[in-house]
Design the sequence.
């Protein structure tokens, strides 16, 4: 079973550079981010080890937040080998996120 992994500025590049991952930019003070959190847990459980589910707190990864052009949170990116293949803004449902990950895995 997969789990959500919290990334920091120190391990961000390593965590996002290989394979497929869902990357959620979020913050403690963000209400919609709190609503998305249980959805990400469900996505991680369904996807398992096929892809990483990552959370990056915008207050702790400011350089990466700028690099990805994040203006609103939650901001969700699907990455394959470090390249953005899909992007979402705001709360998304589990089915949408799982499909985006599976599409990236199949591409």
Sequence:
């Amino acid at each position: 079973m997969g789990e959500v992994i919290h990334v920091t500025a120190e391990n961000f590049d390593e965590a996002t550079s290989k394979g497929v991952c869902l990357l959620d930019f979020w913050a403690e003070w963000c209400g919609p981010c709190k609503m998305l959190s249980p959805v990400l847990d469900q996505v991680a459980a369904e996807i398992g080890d096929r892809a990483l589910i990552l959370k990056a707190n915008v207050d702790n990864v400011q350089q990466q937040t700028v690099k990805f052009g994040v203006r609103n949170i939650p901001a969700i990116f699907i990455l394959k080998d470090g390249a953005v293949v899909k992007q979402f803004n705001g709360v998304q449902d589990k089915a949408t996120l799982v499909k985006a990950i599976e599409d990236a895995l199949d591409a």
